[in-house]
Structures are given as C-alpha cells and as structure tokens.
Amino acid sequence: MTRLFTAVGAVVVSFFTHVGEVVVLAAETFSSIVMQKIRWRLFMNQIVEIGLRSQLVVVITGAFTGAVFAAQTFFQFNKLGMGSAVGAVVSVSICRELGPVLTALMVTGRVGASMSAEIGTMKVTEQIDALRSLAVHPIDYLVVPRALAMMVSMPLLVVECIGVGIAAGYFVAIGLLEVNGTYYMANMVRWTQMRDIIMGLSKAFCFAVLIVFISCHKGLTTREGAVGVGKATTEAVVDSSLAVLICNFFLTMALNIIFPAGYQ
Fold first, then answer.
1. What would the pLDDT profile of 21-56 be if each residue is shown by its tens digit?
2. Is residue 214 predicted with pLDDT exceeding 80?
3. Could you tell me the pTM of the whole model?
4. Which whole-number Å values give the CA distances from 233 to 44, 106, 226, 229, in the listed order?
5. What is the mean pLDDT of the chain?
6. Interior CA angle at 84 toward 83 and 89, to 5°?
7. Region class of 180: left (phi > 0), else alpha (psi between -120 and 50), else beta
8. Within 13 Å of residue 52, how many CA atoms lie on the same side as its CB?
9. Is there a contact between 111 and 169 (Cβ–Cβ < 8 Å)?
C-alpha cells in the first residue's frame, strides 16, 4: 500500500511540476514579447513553416471531415425526413468542435514534433549554451518567434479548415445525396450564429498556446542525446494532443456559459 501511494504521489508531483514549468515558460515568453525586441525575420520564417506549409494537411483534413460528417448526418437524419437539416448540423459542428480540434491535432503532429526535435537537438548539441555565451536569451531567440507565429497562424488555419469542411459537406449533400440545396443553405445560415465562429476562433488561440509551449518546453528540457530527442518529440506530440482534447471539454463548457444561446 505504501508503494502504491508513493507511486501515485510521484506521478502527481511530476505532473504539477511539468505544468508549473510550462506556465513559467509561457510567462517568460509573454514578458519577452512585451519587454524585448521581436526578431521579425525569425517570426516570418516561422509563419511560413507553421502556417503556409500546414495548409495542405489542414485543407485535406477539413474537406474529408466535412464530407464524411455530412454523409453520416444525412444517413441518420433522412430516416426522420430531416435531410435538409444536415447543413445546420455540419456547419455548427465544424465551427465549434471538429474544425478547431482536428486542426490542432494535425498541427501538433506536424509542427509540434518539429519544434521539439529542433530545439531538443540544439539542447543536446549545446547550441543553446552557445546562445547564452553570446548574450542571446534562448527564450527571445527560439520560443518568442514560434509562439507569435503559432498564435497568428492557428486561427487562420482553423478558419480555412472550417470553410473547406462546410464547402465539402455542401457538395456531398447536394451533389451526391441530392439534398434540396435551398433548404440546406437556409437552415445552415439560420442556425449558424456568430457565437459558433467566436467559439471556434477562441479554441484555436487556446490550442495554439498549449501546443507551442508544451512543444518548446519538451525541447528545452531534452536530455540523454539522440535518444532524448526522440523521447522529447514523442512526448511533445502526446502531451499536446491530450492537452488539446482535455482543454476542449472545459473550453466548451466555459464558452457556452460566456456565449449563451441567442448571443449575437
């Protein structure tokens, strides 16, 4: 029994220690954004890496998610004679949940792993120590450009995913399943409100913060050489994905309280 409590206590302490370190990293980063000069060239490079080069993955994810969700919704709703309601369900679901969450998971796998591996390699090869010896703060040089680029790129990627997903669902419902296009669009416009879009963009920003700081923290705390880089990369993707899924629930509950039904 003692060993059990010791093991559980060690896990709990390790978890809160990790969370505290990530929070401290975030605080240092936001402080650097305000107090220090931003390296705009590095920021633009990260915009290209995070935003531009993630578009293909996000577009494919959004298109096929919207298409299959429209098809599955139609197959169930059509039994009740509610095929024209597919547009509203697809639009609201993609805006609120599917667009932000799936985009965050895809960006985690593509960008989060890259951040952790790149910074981790610099850590184990002592390049970060070299930056300090040159009076360059690693947070200013490595984390700030990535954080700013992620916070700018993620909402734009989510908007792209939502737009492509809704368009793909429309073409599947109208072109393949022969849903009445007029009623489809009328229901979609009627039931998709501003609060749905605000919820999606709010989640996108929060997920961006989670991904960038968890991934950068894993890179900055890498040890044990090449093996440590591999472990840090894997942990960055797993931890970021779990954080996105867990925080999505709490964000959903909070945002529905902040933006109740009928909010314009």
1. 899 999 999 999 888 888 899 999 999 999 999 999
2. yes
3. 0.91
4. 24, 15, 11, 6
5. 90
6. 90
7. beta
8. 7
9. no
pLDDT band, residue 264 (cuts 50/70/90)? low
Report the candidate in 127, 8, 107 with the shortest Cα–Cα distance to residue 57: 107
Computed on alpha carbons and rounded to an integer, the radius of gyration of the chain in Å comes to 21
Q: What is the pLDDT of residues 97-119, one digit of tens each?
A: 999 999 999 999 999 999 999 99
Ramachandran bin of 208, using left for φ above 0, alpha for ψ from -120 to 50, beta for the remaining angles: alpha
Spatial separation of the C-alpha atoms in residues 104 and 245, rounded to whole Å: 9
Q: What are phi and psi of 88, to 5 degrees?
A: -65, -45
Q: How many residues does the chain have?
A: 264
Question: CB under 8 Å, gap of 24 or more: what pairs does 60-63 form?
Answer: 61/102, 61/103, 61/106, 61/161, 62/94, 62/99, 62/102, 62/103, 62/160, 62/161, 62/162, 62/163, 62/164, 62/165, 62/168, 63/164, 63/165, 63/167, 63/168
Cα(247)–Cα(253) distance, rounded to whole angstroms? 10
Measured in Å, how far apart are the chain's first and last C-alpha atoms?
55
Tell me, what's the pLDDT at 262?
60
Amino acid of residue 92? V
